[in-house]
Amino acid sequence: MPQMSRQDPLIEHHTVDYVPLAERHGKARDLFTLWFSTNIAPLPIVTGAMVAQVFHLNLLWGLLAIALGHLLGGVVIALASAQGPRMGIPQMVQSRGQFGRYGALLIVFFAALIYIGFFISNIVLAGKSIVGIVPSVPVPASILIGALSATAIGVIGYRFIHTLNRIGTWVMGSALLAGFAYIFAHDLPADFLTRGGFNAAGWLATVSLGVIWQISFSPYTSDYSRYLPADIGITRPFIATYLGATLGTILSFAFGLVAALATPEGTEAMVAVKQATGALGPILMVLFLLNIISHNALNLYGAVLSIITSIQTFASRWTPSIKVRVVLSGVILAGCCLVALGASADFIAQFIGLILALLLVLVPWASINLIDFYLIKRGVYDIASIFQADGGVYGRFNLHAIVAYFIGIIVQLPFANTSLYVGPWANLVEGADLSWLVGLAVTCPLYYCLATRGQAQKVRAVELGYSD
C-alpha cells in the first residue's frame, strides 16, 4: 500500500474528479470500520427503542425483525459501496452513466437535500447533547460547536473521516458492549422478556425500517470507497461494507430495544439509556456526542460533493479545487446553522419525517444504479464520457432510466405511509411503509427490460448500417 507522500496528503484535494490509480490507497477493512462506527449513534438507538415503545414487539421478535431488516437492506448499501474502487468517482457523478449528464441532476438535487436535512438535524441533536452534558453552555453556542466540529472533519476529507472511524470502531464498539454488559449484570424488570409480543404490523414495520435505513446511505457509499485500489475487486469491499453497516446498526437498534425494556414502560429512549447503564451513562453520552459530530461530517461531505456535481454539470471543463470545497462547506455551515438556531422543539421529528418521505425517490434510483452497474454494463463505464459536456456515449438524457425512475416513484405513492403523504393503500399492513418493496419490485425489471431492449436496438442499427 502506498505511504503518505506529497501526492497523498492528509487534506483531500480531489472533489468530484476521477481518482488516478497512482493515488489509490487503503484496504477493504476500512469500509467495515467506517460503516460500523458511523451507526453506533443516538439516532439508531432511539429508533431501536421504538421497536418496543411504538411497535410493541417483545425482545425475541424485536431482535429477529431488526436483524432481518438490516441484513436485507445491507445488500443494497454493500453493492453500491463495491462500485467505488472500480469507478474512482463519487456515487452521484457515476449516475451520469445511467441517467445521462443532465438527467442525473434531479437525483443529485434530492441527494443534496437529504444530506443537508440530516446535517441540520444532527447539529441540533449535537447541540442538545452538549447542553445535556454541560448545562451551562447556551444552546446557540452548543449548536455552533457541533456544526463547526463536523465541518472541520468534512473539509479535511476522505482520509481523516476513515481515520476517525477506525478509532471509533474500537471505542464505540467497546462502549456499547460495556453498556450491554452493565444492563444484563443488574436486575431487570419482571416483564423484560414478556413486555410486548408478536404482531404482524409491528414486525413488518420494524423489518421495513431496517431496509429503509440501509438504503438511505446508498447515494454516498462509493464516495468512501473510490480511493481504494482498482484491483481490489468487488467481493472484499462488498463484504466489508455489508458486515460493518449491518453489525453496527443491528447492535445499536438492539441496544435501544434492550434499554427500553430494561426501564419502566414509557421512558424516553435516551433517558432509558442513561437509567439502564447507571455509572456508564454519562460516559456513553459523551461518546455518542463525539460520534454524532463524526457522522455528521459525512453528511456535509456528501452535500458538498453533490452541489459541486450539479455546478460542474454546466461547466464540463471546470475542475474544482479544495478551495471550492472549503467555501461551499462554509456556505452550507452558515445556512444550516441559521435554520438550526431557529428550529422548533419538534424540528428533528419533522425533518426526519421529510427525509423518510424523500426516500421514495431513492428506491428507484438504487434499483437503476445496481441493475445498470451489475447486470447491464457489468462494471465497465467510459469515465471520460461521464465528464464530457455532451455526456459522451451516455448522452445528455437517458430516457430509459428516466422513465423507469419516475414510474418507480409513481407506483410507490399508493402504498406510501409518511408524515407528508399517506397513500390510499398505505394501511394494508398498519404502521408499515411497504412502498419501498413495490418500488424495487417494479423498477428493477422495468429498467432491465428497457435498457437491454435499447442495447439490442443499437446493435441492430449498427448491423444495418444506420448507426453513426
Features:
single chain, 468 residues, mainly alpha, 18 helices
Gist?
It contains 18 helices and no strands.
- Which outline best applies? globular
Total of helices: 18
State the low-pLDDT regions, or none.
1-8
Q: N-to-C terminal Cα separation, in Å?
A: 44 Å
Total count of strands: 0
> In which range does the helix fraction lie?
55-70%
Helix and strand run = HHHHHHHHHHHHHHHHHH
Radius of gyration: 22 Å
Largest sheet, strands/sense/barrel: none
Strand content: under 5%
Arithmetic mean pLDDT: 86
Structural class determined from secondary elements: mainly alpha
Detailed description of the structure:
- The protein has 468 residues and is an all-alpha fold.
- Helices cover 67% and strands 0% of the residues.
- The protein is built from 18 helices and no strands.
- It has helices at 29-38, 42-53, 59-81, 83-87, 91-94, 96-99, 105-133, 139-156, 158-185, 200-215, 235-261, 269-277, 281-313, 322-341, 347-376, 383-386, 399-410, 435-464.
- Helix 17 (399-410) packs antiparallel against helix 18.
What topology emerges from the helices and strands here?
Elements: H1 29-38, H2 42-53, H3 59-81, H4 83-87, H5 91-94, H6 96-99, H7 105-133, H8 139-156, H9 158-185, H10 200-215, H11 235-261, H12 269-277, H13 281-313, H14 322-341, H15 347-376, H16 383-386, H17 399-410, H18 435-464
